[in-house]
Amino acid sequence: MKRRVYEAQARGIAMIKEANPTKEYMMLQGLKAYSELADGKATKLVVPTELQSLASFLTSAKEFTNLKSEEKE
Q1: 29-57 pLDDT, tens per residue?
Q2: How many other CB atoms sit within 10 Å of the CB of residue 27?
Q3: What does the buried/exposed string (b/e) look like for 28-39 if buried means 16 or more CB atoms within 10 Å of the residue's CB?
Q4: Where are the alpha helices (DSSP H) in the chain?
């Protein structure tokens, strides 16, 4: 039974890859997945890569700003 599920998932992934989806489509699918996670049944925290990148950028920007402030003093 599990094998059939895995084979179906693999076929679905292959079909999506062959269709060469746009970045926007993939982002929309990701948002749909987040809504499923938000139903309260999820046991793990998932942080989107985009948010991780944004958090890293903001942290770097803050550090850069702090360095510039220290140089002025």
Answers
A1: 877 877 777 776 666 666 666 666 767 77
A2: 13
A3: eeeeeeeeeeee
A4: 2-19, 23-37, 49-72
